[in-house]
């Protein structure tokens, strides 16, 4: 696998169609052995962290149940290692009818988020049940954020090399999550992609441990920008050094892109259905005409 310098020449961060096929991390990659050990070690650490986290999860679960209708835990299909789907577990922070009209991209100030859910997200407590995914071996503590299948399909079509992040296991926290806010548009996804690929190519134990410690400090509201810099986890310089492609294009929000994709699919399905209907009517007319012409 190329280094980040090779992945991000000038205004591009991945060659065209680089993410068309998902593969495992190549054995010749200099981080292959590290990631193999990392999966085993972080699974053990995840089990160790899950035990003391269970009482906190139980309290938060009860609070969610008491303050809003619906289950306390939220399960959703995400795309993981090598493109394999798995069910991520989180504390529910939205109303149960949040996606009654189909998939929606969460945004800042999202009205679907409950009052308690907003507090849980601010403290990152809604992420604690993902330790169960780590204990199962579906996730690790540090890695790219897992996305939903429909979002992965959408972003693969618009962000070159997006599927390259699937050559490693997804994580609860990561370099892109620490440095950047939640995704809102394609440009923000591309910026996070730069940091995710940088972590894949430069990961080592002390690097990952610093991110775990900083995330833990954020849970207890200690972390800030200065602390991030002191721990040498501020990597905004990469974004300035390797600008994303098409910086001058009009910014498209992810929700607008998702809505447009859904409308296009509905149009295609409607168009196909319409043609099939017309063809069937023509066939029926031909059958009727043929039957009339036949001698009795």
Automatic annotation (TrEMBL):
Pfam families documented for this protein: Bac_transf
Q: What is its EC number?
A: 2.7.8.-
* Residue numbers spanned by region Disordered: 268-296
Q: Where is the Bacterial sugar transferase domain?
A: 41-220
One annotated GO molecular function? phosphotransferase activity, for other substituted phosphate groups
Q: Return the broad EC class.
A: transferase
Enumerate the transmembrane spans. 44-64
Record keywords, A-Z: Membrane, Transferase, Transmembrane, Transmembrane helix
Top-rank taxon: Bacteria
What's this protein's family per the entry?
Answer: Belongs to the bacterial sugar transferase family.
Q: What is this protein called?
A: Putative undecaprenyl-phosphate N-acetylgalactosaminyl 1-phosphate transferase
Q: Which organism is it from?
A: Novipirellula galeiformis
Chain's gene name: tuaA
């Amino acid at each position: 696998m190329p280094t980040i310098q090779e992945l991000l020449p000038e205004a591009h961060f991945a060659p065209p169609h680089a993410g068309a096929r998902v593969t495992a991390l190549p054995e010749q990659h200099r981080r292959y052995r590290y990631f193999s050990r990392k999966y085993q070690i972080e699974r053990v650490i995840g089990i160790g962290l899950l035990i003391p986290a269970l009482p906190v999860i139980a309290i938060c679960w009860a609070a969610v149940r008491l303050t809003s209708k619906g289950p306390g835990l939220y399960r959703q299909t995400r795309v993981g290692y090598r493109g394999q789907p798995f069910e991520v577990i989180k504390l529910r922070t939205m109303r149960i009818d949040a996606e009654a009209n189909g998939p929606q991209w969460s945004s800042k100030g999202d009205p679907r988020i409950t009052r308690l859910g907003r507090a849980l997200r601010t403290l990152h407590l809604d992420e604690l049940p993902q330790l169960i995914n780590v204990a199962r071996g579906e996730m690790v503590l540090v890695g790219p954020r897992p996305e939903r299948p429909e979002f992965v399909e959408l972003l693969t079509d618009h962000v070159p090399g997006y599927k390259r992040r699937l050559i490693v296991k997804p994580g609860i926290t990561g370099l892109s999550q620490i440095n950047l806010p939640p995704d809102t548009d394609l440009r923000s996804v591309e910026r996070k992609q730069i940091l995710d690929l940088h972590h894949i190519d430069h990961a080592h134990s002390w690097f990952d441990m610093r991110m775990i410690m900083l995330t833990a400090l954020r849970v207890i509201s200690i972390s800030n920008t200065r602390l991030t810099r002191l721990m040498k986890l501020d990597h905004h310089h990469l974004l300035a050094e390797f600008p994303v492609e098409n910086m001058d294009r009009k910014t498209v929000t992810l929700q607008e892109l998702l809505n447009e994709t859904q409308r296009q699919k509905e149009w295609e399905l409607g168009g196909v259905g319409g043609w099939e209907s017309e063809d069937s009517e023509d066939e029926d007319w031909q059958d009727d005409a043929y039957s009339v012409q036949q001698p009795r």
